[in-house]
Write a structure and sequence with these properties.
The structure holds two protein chains of two kinds. By secondary structure, chain A is mainly α. Helix content of chain A is about 55%, strand content about 5%. Chain A has a domain of about 290 residues: Ribonucleotide Reductase, subunit A, CATH 1.10.620. Chain A is globular. Classes of the chains: A mainly alpha, B mainly alpha. The complex binds fe (ii) ion (2 copies) and zinc ion (ZN). Chain A: Keywords: Monooxygenase, Oxidoreductase.
Chain lengths: ~550, ~350
């Protein structure tokens, strides 16, 4: 063939450019004149119908591109089985996937639903097209993750916990955190929820930790399936981030929106920190058996992705539009991770609560201690004894660590805003809304409940803003319950009617596995209800004591 | 003790069956009742992902709208169900099947269009037909888009994952088809001299022939009951207007105008509709025969049917002049309408509702 002559050139015919195609597709919309679209999901923001410049794509190229991605995912799952992946996988890691994958499909589909809310508000049809594709993407994410979970259930040594996954999601004290995350995407002010909380903060700032850091750690634990699925999921995020940014830019243009935007950026950033860092930090640091000192810790990843990439290059530039950025909160979140051991305290809390989990948590051991101390100096002094106790009390017939007074752990109050307990004791605080007492993990979370989720903000009515509702403190649901009855009510019992689904170890042997009888003598209580019942003096003292913290006793 | 220790330490594998203990073989999601003997893949990846306080949502919804409405509320439709969770979509769509199908369709269309254009087919279309495509298929694409955005809105409100995902894929199909038509017309417009790509929208907005259709579509877009939207799209508008135009006109007439490409493009939408219709009928049938609420739902569907049916009838009547535009006349408007009415009767009997009020008996 002569130089420069290819089959492509011979057969090529005049086509329309992608820009032209996107413009034509955008022209499908019109302003109704017979019947107006109802404003069913209201917002307090004013949205100027100024078209921005969103990503250009049409469904004709979108569907084949996505199918191609899918082919790679399903091909890789097949290959993983052929390669006997599960023979070498680390159970410590897969156990945490019972929690992670119980949570994540609901936030994903919630993101799809929330596209309905921003779809109608979109300034310009090109952006609405972007939201359409995001809707289908999120449907993809939700069901592809359910598929992965099913696959683990079918192939992993202990399927218990995977087999009850969506039921567990609705009931567990840990998944409540994920439900707060998801409901935040689709309830209340449409822009607050679907634009700021979901896209501008969760997707733009935090999906790297979810969908990039998690896969790396999975691979270090012999799990090649999760990376395949989640990197494929993450490859859709840049479009979503683009959608969110376009919307944000159109909101920014109206100075009337600035106060609301400052409120929402503050709320969304803080709550994403509280929720995502707690959960993903724990999976990555405690779900792994890899203790390579050269790999980045969660704190190091956070600094790179959240501090450098998000705070410095995405948030700070918003200042030039006159938006006040909550620098203090970013610094505070960072301090909580590196100085206050937020992630480690979360892992400790999950471990203490093991009998009401639906996955296994094994003890951290000497091999792990060294890495933690290297990455988080001072770790051993604060957590070393705890994990030794945990190991000791992991044997069937021991007292559950939660009830073993000799350990010295004090069960935490639940934060009414982020649903993570008040683990950094000195930051614990209380507040009142409509004459009722509530507990919080931090000042920021108190502000979220008392000031942000309210009928007015800084003197301005905010009729579209959502409210916190439901039985938000999980512990209230089982206040005064016997622990065995509670576990039975949760459905976290295996099919023999007595062996627990959760176990404080990875010993896959009936003789080692705890049953309802082993946990029967203990009673659960709600810290919040107890605090509410106290006299003001007793309460003040209880708060002061709690803030003073606790010490884990030495173990011999 | 040492015996235990040995057994325990010998489990070096994380693979299924590496050790036997309680539930080592519990390898099915066990929290929902499958529709058939065993759960389908679709059910496994769909059921209960959207939680419900009546099932497993222990703490109830934890955020509400300002008026106290929770994240999902049953009263977002006037229809009532004893158990919304019983519904399963007929097409069993989840992401893998959805992308495969959508991708196959766009691939097929691009082949047909590219090959047709390469052979110069659009230049041989009958000139009167070209103008029909330009003005009227060009107008109709906006109707499809309107139904796509209405269902995009509706998929936020359903009370289960199964309901919402069926509506979501419906939206995805409609929006794809609206874009298919848009890009198809733009591409043949490159080959046909003086093809006015903007004419379709002008006809959609101003041509009296299309105003009934636009009103019917806007009424669906503007409905605040999500199930009314889903009902109006699939049970009413599609048979009486959508299919009438697609099957009863384009598909029947095109070949005689020397056009074999357009029917291929439009046939994709007919295939989409078969699936969306099956899904919608299944849901409406479940509601119409609900032990407790069947009578209430039938009455409600009757209201929706007469409201949207009247608009659809008007739309169809307005479209009549289009049938006399082609130079080679091979289809009668009255035949097409009769077929549409037959279709609606069949749908009505499957759902279990009386459609005589809209189309006579
Ligand atoms: Fe997603
Ligand atoms: Fe996303
Ligand atoms: Zn908090």
């Amino acid at each position: 063939m002569p130089d420069g002559l290819t089959l492509n050139k011979i057969t090529a015919q005049r086509g329309i450019s992608i820009g032209e195609a996107a413009r034509r597709v955008a022209d499908l919309g019109w302003t109704p004149s017979y019947v107006q679209e109802a404003n069913t999901f209201p917002t307090d923001y004013k949205i100027k119908k100024v078209p921005r410049d969103p990503m250009k794509q049409v469904l004709r190229s979108y569907f084949p591109m996505q199918e191609e991605k899918d082919n790679r995912v399903y091909g890789a799952l097949d290959a993983a089985l052929r390669g006997d992946m599960f023979r070498n996988v680390e159970p410590r890691w897969i156990e945490w996937m019972k929690l992670f994958l119980a949570i994540i499909p609901f936030p994903e589909i919630s993101a799809a639903r929330s596209m309905a809310m921003v779809g109608r508000l979109a300034p310009g049809e090109e952006l609405r097209t972007g939201f359409t594709m995001q809707m289908v993407d999120e449907f993809r994410h939700s069901t592809i993750q359910m598929n992965l979970k099913k696959w683990y259930m079918e192939n992993y040594i202990d399927p218990a916990g995977f087999d009850i996954t969506e039921a567990a999601f609705g009931k567990c004290y840990a998944t409540t955190i994920g439900r707060q995350f998801a409901e935040g995407f689709l309830t209340g002010d449409a822009i607050t929820a679907a634009n700021v909380y979901l896209t501008v903060v969760a997707e733009t700032a935090f999906t790297n930790t979810l969908f990039v850091a998690m896969p790396s750690e999975a691979a270090r634990n012999g799990d090649y399936a999760l990376p395949t699925v989640f990197l494929s999921v993450q490859s859709d995020e840049s479009r979503h981030i683009g959608n969110g940014h376009s919307m944000l830019m159109s909101i920014l243009q109206d100075p009337d929106n600035h106060k609301l935007l400052e409120r929402d950026l503050k709320y969304a950033f803080w709550q994403n920190h509280a929720i995502v860092d707690a959960a993903i930090g724990t999976f990555i640091e405690y779900g792994t058996t890899n203790r390579d000192k050269k790999k980045e810790s969660y704190a190091e990843l956070w600094h790179r992705w959240i501090y450098e990439d998000y705070y410095r290059t995405y948030m700070l530039p918003l200042e030039k539009y006159g938006i006040k950025i909550h620098h203090d909160d970013v610094a505070h979140a960072w301090d909580r991770i590196v100085k206050s051991n937020y992630v480690h305290k979360t892992a400790q809390f999950f471990a203490v609560g093991w009998p009401v989990n639906f996955w296994r948590i094994e003890a951290q051991t000497e091999k792990d201690f060294e890495w933690f101390e290297h990455k988080y100096p001072g770790w051993y002094a604060e957590f070393g004894n705890f994990w030794k106790w945990y190991d000791k009390l992991s044997h069937k017939g021991s007292k559950p660590i939660l009830f073993a007074e000799e350990v010295g752990y004090v069960y935490p109050y639940r934060c009414w805003s982020c649903m993570v307990p008040a683990l950094i004791r000195e930051e614990f605080c209380v507040g009142e809304v409509d004459g009722k007492l509530y507990t919080y993990c931090s000042e920021e979370c108190r502000w979220t409940h008392t000031t942000a989720f309210a009928a007015e903000y800084e003197g301005r009515p905010t009729p579209a803003m959502g409210r916190f509702s439901g039985r938000r403190e999980w512990e209230t649901c089982y206040d005064g319950w016997n622990l065995a009855d509670c576990i039975q009510d949760l459905g976290f019992v295996r099919s023999d009617g007595k062996t627990l689904i959760p176990q404080p170890h990875l010993r896959f042997d009936d003789r080692e596995m705890w049953t309802l009888d082993d946990v029967r003598p203990y009673t659960l209580g709600s810290p919040l209800e107890a605090l509410r019942k106290m006299t003001p003096e007793a309460r003040e003292k209880a708060i002061a004591d709690y803030r003073a913290g606790f010490t884990i006793n030495a173990i011999n | 003790m040492s015996a235990t220790q040995e057994t325990v330490d010998s489990v070096k594998s994380g693979a299924a069956g590496a050790a036997k203990f309680v539930d080592w073989d519990s390898r099915k999601f066990n929290y929902f009742e499958p529709k058939g003997r065993k759960a389908s893949h679709y059910e496994d990846v769909t059921v209960d992902v959207q939680p419900d306080p009546k099932r497993y949502l222990l703490q109830d919804w934890i955020i509400s709208f300002a008026d106290g409405t929770p994240t999902y509320a049953e009263n977002w439709t006037q229809a009532l169900a004893s158990d919304w969770h019983r519904y399963r979509s007929v097409d069993q769509e989840w992401e893998k099947t959805h992308y495969q199908r959508q991708s196959t369709i766009v691939g097929m269309l691009q082949n047909v269009i590219n090959n047709g254009r390469r052979s110069g087919a659009p230049t041989r279309f009958d000139p009167a037909w070209v103008k029909i495509l330009q003005d009227h298929l060009g107008a109709y694409k906006h109707a499809e888009f309107g139904l796509g955005t209405a269902t995009m809105q509706a998929q936020r409100y359903g009370f289960t994952q199964m309901v919402n995902n069926a509506i979501l894929t419906n939206s995805s199909y409609k929006l794809r088809f609206a874009q298919d038509l848009t890009l198809y017309l733009s591409e043949i417009g490159l080959d046909i001299e003086k093809f006015d790509i903007d004419a379709g929208k002008r006809h959609w907005l101003d041509d009296p022939v299309w105003q009934g259709t636009r009103e019917a579509v806007e009424a669906i877009m503007g409905a605040t009951d999500y199930l009314e939207q889903y009902f109006a799209v699939n049970i009413v508008f599609e048979p009486l207007v959508g299919e009438l135009f697609r099957s009863g006109f384009i598909m029947r007439v095109a070949a005689a105008q020397n056009d074999f490409i357009t029917p291929a493009v439009v046939s994709a939408a007919e295939g989409d509709y078969e699936r969306n219709l099956a899904n919608a009928v299944e849901l409406m049938h479940m509601l119409a025969t609900d032990e407790k609420h069947g009578a209430h739902n039938q009455k409600l569907f009757g209201t929706w049917l007469s409201h949207h049916g009247a608009l659809a009838n008007k739309a169809a009547a307005n479209l009549q002049p289009i049938w006399s535009l082609p130079r080679v006349k091979v289809a009668q408007y009255t035949d097409a309408v009769a077929q549409a009415h037959n279709r609606l009767r069949a749908i009505g009997s499957e759902v279990g509702i009386d459609v005589r009020g809209v189309i006579g008996s």
